[in-house]
Structure formats: C-alpha cells, structure tokens
Design a protein that fits this description.
This protein is α/β, with parallel strands linked by helices. It is built from 17 helices and 15 strands.
Length: 421
C-alpha cells in the first residue's frame, strides 16, 4: 500500500457506538494515522469537536471521509484510502455487505461490531475464498459479541492442565443504575439488529448447514445442550440457553482450528442467568414469542417503531446514559472439562477448571475497546494470523496474537481470572 494511505478509518463515526469508538481511538490508536467516515460532513465535524473537548485533544488533523452505503462508489473509494476499516454502521444485514465487498476488492482489512449471526455466517460463506485470494482479513463480531466468549475459551484452555473437551459458559449481568431517570441499556440500533436476527432465524440454519460442511471427528463425551431452566454448582442464578451470536462464532472458530491445524475442537454451549426460576422460564417464553412476532410484518414494524415500549424502557433512541453504562457489569463463568496430561481421552474427563471473564460497560465501552484493539492487532501482528486473509471469526483469527493480553491490560477491557483449578 502507498505511503499516503491511512492506517485506519472508523466508518459510521456519527452513530451512538461510532462516537464512543472515535473517543477511545484517541488513546488506543496513538501514533497511527486514522480518520473518520460517514455520509454527513457537518455531523462528522461535530463528532471531532465533541470528542476533542472530552479528551482535551486537538483533533483538527483527523481526516474526514464522506462515504454512504447507498453509494457503493463512495464506499469503494473509502476502502482504498486505508489499511483497515472499522465498520460501526449497522444493522449489518442491511448495510454491512457493501463495506465488506469494497474492503476485499481493495485488499483492505475489515473489522466490525456486528452481532447478527445471519450476516456473520453469510459473509464467511460468500466471501472467504475471495478475501483469502486478495489478502484481506475480514474479522466480524469484534465486540461484546463475541470477543469475551472467544477469549474466555482461549483463557480456559491456556490454564487447563491437559486437553479440554468442552466449555459451558454462564452469563450473569449486574444492573446498578446510577441515574434513576433512565433504565436504558441499549440503543435502538442494537434492538433492530436483534429483531432482524430473529426474523431470519430459519435462514440462519440454512446458511450454517452450508458453511459448516467440513467433517469433524466424533467427540466423546458429547456435550449436550441443557434446554430447560437449571442451576449449576457455584452460581445462584437460574439459567436457560441463550442463542446469541457467541455460540455460532465460537463453534466456527473451533471447527476452523481443527480443519486447518488438526487441533481437537472444544465443544461449546452458552446460558444466561436470571434471579429466579420464574424469571428464567419467562425469558424463554419471551424469546420464543419474539421469534414468532419478528416473522409477522406489521408486528415487526410496530416493534421497530416503539422499542422503548416493547423493551420496557431498556432500549431508547438516545441510548443508555453514560453514568449507567459505566457501572453496568457483566460476568461470564466458564466451566472447562477434559483430561489432564497423560490421561487417555477414551476415559471419562477427570479435570475441571472454572474461569471468569468480567468487565464494565460491555455493550459499548468494551465493544469499542475490542474493535479498536482488533484493528490494532491486524496492523501490528498480521504475521501471526492464519491463512494470509479470509473472512474469519475472531477466536481463530487472533488465537496466536497478543489480543488477549492487550485487552486484559486496558482500562476498558476484560478481567480474566481462574476461580477453581
């Protein structure tokens, strides 16, 4: 690439998440040459002024690039101006592919904060071979979904004294609102992405079947999904399966590690916890009803129009207040089972370790940190990444890089700890 190119461009910089990414980039990108992009020049200038005041930095030198997903030529021109695009413009099912394609055609790398399984798997299926041919890394879901789960599995494996057979992840959230005037936890963009994912759940199954065509070994013992409300040792919550993007992404990473490196794949399942049996049961009911309603056109339109009402105030156009974002905490407890070194894998697993992954402000602060550090890792550690390009999940793409160490040492990153060994 020519010397005049930027290292990175943050696309969608005027959105709720994009503005947080721009602010964090001032610290994380350091001496990198980076710019911001979007379709409205005045709003982009306002973002730089606002972030400059908050960080007490002069950002007048930051380049502004005009690009609109409805104008593919402008997206192509943007992709040619840098080494990596940080795409913060969703919902990705509607607006993501044009950016992915432009990056691949330009040989530019791409990371995003997507959490839409149909989009993620669809891009892997459609563009992986071309991305590898062009030498472009397209790493999707570099955010709260699915960096903590991917790195949590890696951390558990690194601390396991042998071979890991399975990992079960239990998610607990802690809500502690500082400002009682609002209980919003998410912006409407997150709500829209979730509804689109539920609307196209059937399509997702079809894509997954085509994508995951590689034959895996017969693993024993099989990790069975626990479909009903249950508790697990050491945790007070009641848990139910939670079909988040994490499950799809982690399982894809494990599959690729086997296909390309002959590494035994780790079986993975994920659950979310509620304070009572009744709340956990009702959550399952709500998820089922959500999928049904998302398939009914006029109901889906009402849900999209009035997210504040149907989310009981948890989703708003303004997004969560910063004071509430900063104190919102999440906690993943991962239980890894397998065999100690020297124990035959034909026998029953004889070892379990429990690790914890936690952070504050997961939906936005951690997401911003994760996507920025992912881009930084591509810029600095390409030689440690697999296959010289491709549309890859983060767990496989960054397995041999220092991303885990970077994100564990950052103030907005993740805390990793072994709580039982």
């Amino acid at each position: 690439m020519s010397v005049g190119k930027l290292d990175a461009i943050i696309f969608g910089a005027t959105g709720y998440t994009g503005q947080i990414v721009v602010e964090d980039a001032v610290d994380i990108f350091g001496d990198f040459k980076w710019g911001i992009a979007g379709r409205n020049e005045s709003k982009l200038k306002d973002v730089l002024v606002k972030v400059g005041k908050r960080t007490q930095r002069d950002l007048n030198h930051i380049p502004i690039i005009l690009a609109d997903v409805n104008d593919p030529k402008s997206i192509e021109a943007m992709a040619q101006k840098c080494k990596v695009i940080l795409n913060c413009c969703g919902p990705y099912r509607l607006y993501g592919e044009v950016v992915v394609k432009a990056c691949i055609d330009a040989g530019t790398h791409h990371v995003d904060v997507s959490a839409e399984p149909q989009y993620i798997s669809g891009m892997q299926l459609k563009y992986n071979d071309l991305a590898q041919e062009k030498g472009s890394y397209v790493i999707l879901a570099c955010a709260f979904e699915s960096i903590p789960a991917e790195l949590g599995v890696q951390y558990a494996e690194k601390n396991f004294p042998g071979t890991v057979n399975s990992v079960e992840l239990y998610w607990e959230n802690i809500f502690n609102f500082q400002d009682k005037s609002s209980k919003a936890l998410a912006h409407t963009g997150t709500w829209e992405s979730g509804l689109y994912a539920m609307q196209h759940a059937k399509e997702m199954m079809s894509i997954q079947k085509k994508l995951n065509c590689e034959k895996l070994p017969n693993l024993s013992p099989k990790l069975k999904l626990r479909p009903f409300v249950h508790q697990t040792e050491g945790l007070r919550s009641y848990f139910v399966p939670f079909p988040l993007t994490d499950r799809v992404v982690v399982q894809r990473s494990q599959r690729l590690a086997y296909v390309h490196e002959k590494k035994r794949p780790i079986q993975f399942e994920m659950y979310i916890g509620m304070k009572s049996f009744l709340m956990a049961f009702l959550l399952q009911v709500v998820m089922v009803l959500g999928i049904i309603f998302a398939h009914i056109g006029f109901v889906r339109k009402i849900f999209l129009k009035y997210p504040h009402i149907f989310s009981a105030g948890l989703v708003t156009q303004e997004g969560p207040l910063e004071a509430n974002r900063k104190v919102l905490e999440f906690r993943y407890t991962l239980k890894a089972k397998g065999w100690t070194t020297g124990t035959p894998e034909s026998s029953a697993p004889n070892e379990e370790i429990v690790v914890r992954v936690s952070a504050n402000d997961p939906g936005y602060g951690l997401t911003s940190c994760a996507v920025l550090l992912s881009a930084k890792t591509i810029l600095r550690e390409q030689s440690l990444m697999p296959r010289k390009g491709g549309v890859l999940p983060p767990g496989f793409a960054f397995a041999k890089t220092s991303l885990l160490e970077q994100i564990s040492s950052h103030k907005s990153g993740l805390k990793f700890e072994v709580i039982k060994k």
